UniProtKB/TrEMBL annotation:
Signal peptide: none annotated. It comes from Colletotrichum liriopes. This is Glutathione-dependent formaldehyde-activating enzyme. InterPro entries: CENP-V-like, Mss4-like_sf.
Amino acid sequence: MDFLGTLPDVPGDDLKIYTGGCDCGAVQVAVRTKPIHDAEIKEDNCSICIRVTLVGQDQTQEYKFGREFNGSPFCRICGVHCFGNLYGPPKDIVARLPEAKQEFVRKQLEVRPLNIRVLDDVEWDKINITWSNEGTGATSCLNETLKNCLDCLLCSLDV
């Protein structure tokens, strides 16, 4: 299927444009990045889980759960999940965090989660996926190495 939107115009050497979308084509994505097999790819244990252009966002229905720090838009027609929305904790709570954690939140909210499974022409045999337990809710609160996930930032506060 041909991408119907404006392709990302991001300067840089050795960048590649990947396009794709949901099964019915109502939601489309395009990302310009270094070859995906050279990019950092993370997979976590989220049950639904750079530089991106989205077409058809109005064709999605967003599902939010838990503290609603994240949104998972699904195509209204075929139900495929192509990208995510990050909202983070409420600003008044973030303001009460230590500066290092405030900066972590700012950087995390600059990320545009993208389901690479919906992209065409991905070099699947070359991809190295990093497994992450970030965002696992209460479980990660018990593990000091995972204290930086957005859902767990509130654990450091008495709220």
